[in-house]
Amino acid sequence: MVKEPAWVMQKKEKIFWGWYIVAGAFLVMAVNYGTRYCFGVFVKPISDEHGWSRSVISLAATINMMVYSIGAIFVGRMLDRIAPLWIMTIGAIIAAAGYILTGFIDTPFSFYLTYGLLVGLGAAGMGVVVCSSSVGKWFIKMRGVALGIATMGISFGTMTLTPLTGYLCEYFSWRIGLFVLGIITFVVGIAVSQTLMHKTQPEAYGLLPDGDKIALPVQLSNLPVINRVSSAVVFRDIRFWTLAICHGLIIMVVMSVFVHQVAYAMDNNIENITAATSLAAVSMTGFFGQFFFGWLSDRMHDPKYAYFLGILFLLTGMILLFYAHSVTTLYLYAIIYGFGYGSLAPILPIIVADRFGRHVLGSIYGLLTFFIGIGGSIGPILGGIIYDKLGSYQYLWGINIAILAGISLIILNLKKGNQFKAGSSD
To answer: Which domains does the chain have, with CATH numbers?
Structure first.
């Protein structure tokens, strides 16, 4: 009998290593996004102490998103060549330093430097580009479920850390809240990355995606040669720009809500901890949405339909938020909007791998995240400016509703096309 090549037979391991990558990605994203999405809890306390306007404070979140987006380009390309271990470790150290130093701010400039620059840069090393791309390289048939489970960490982190942060701000101080977030980022980020995230992709270790024993034709066609693709080739593809613009606008909506939702609730005489807990409620239903939409995408012939359904949930939630002047309506919004929000993190890397190829997932996802981040950076400052000028968030919510309605129709027309071939360089 002819012995099969090493890359055809999986090593005899009790658990396929890809699931360790999923676990690591879950924990890192829980810490990274759980801490960043606590920003809304700090808006009113910082404003009350320093007398800064909402737009001045929101600019820190905007700078954070811009730095995060620029960093995503570089970490995405690095990830197609090296393991995520040191990318995540360095990111955790920088982000933790940023949170702790933000507790000592006394000027807007120092705020922008610590939270905007340092936390944004560190977050890029622990973000969805690194985590989801790492997971996506280890799975084909079960990619949706794997990414759905991994991205559930985003909601898990948010729904556990926002109430904690609200409690710390209420009974201690917002500075103590930031210090605690920094310590959590440092300890968990480094421990997880050093133990679980030191492998690149299955073929490099004589394994196959999904833990399969025998290579299938679809897997053979996905075996990487050189994990590079020319940016010029990417920029000529209309599918790339459709995803960049549509998802960028969606993230603009999401970031405007995350930064201003708590302040909006408090403006409607909903007390601090309850308002912060509504943000956790968004993440709680998002937790289930992330698994559901990942699972659903594996069962649809085109994941864009799962994407479309997620946007419809977001749209319905935004309409409810427009009328959310009571705790009941606020939580109803949180449940529906949160479920739709759960579609975003798993769906984008699934669509990227489906449209462009698994071997260049990090590079393409990194480029997309840069453009998406531009939209995300506009959301917080747009909300701050609208509130400062018009004295209400209702106008912001109306803009968000119109954007989501338009995008839901555009996504239905997203074409499949051919996957990129590995090996082309800049």
So the answer is: 17-205+230-411 (1.20.1250.20)
